[in-house]
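cron nightly-structures :: item 1 of 1
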Amino acid sequence: MNRKSRLANLIIFLSTLCRLSLATGAAQPLTARSATASSYIERGNAWVVKGERERAIADYDLAIASDPIFAQGYYNRAIARYHLKDYERAVADFIRAIQLDPHFIRAYVDRDAVRYLKGDPERAEADFSRAIELKPHLADAYAQRGLVRLQQGKEAEAEKDFARCLALNGNLQASLERLVRETKAQMAAQALR
């Protein structure tokens, strides 16, 4: 597994843990439609925990059919599609979740992980910047944007992002140093080709 895949998997894994630990629909008023959608999402989350992503997608589809403006349904389906390596449809679901809830920070970050994995650093950087704009204390967004900027040759900007990341969460230092080392090694190897 290459560094991009590991990085994207780490971002999505952390998001999945955060998502599964939060109450679904917390940011949206509970109506009969969203209550039904929440039930499907909870069952879909249970399928994800069991590793049954296709079944989870089926429940997320039902959640979306029950309440088409419930951003969490699109987000959860995007995560499941990502794990099935259905990147195009995952990005489409992240986009729809963001359209429905422009302040859905994790959707920006996770869409970025997929875009980064697909080799679209400019759009990935833009997503991380938007996530940081919405939540300036999101340490992992600074780290990830820094890695993207480092690969683009924007070393001064990358260093500022890394410094901000560590100022927000010093516990990330060892992981960040490893990722920076791996990124620089990958860039050096590509330069030799």
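cron nightly-structures :: done
The chain is about 80% helix and 0% strand.
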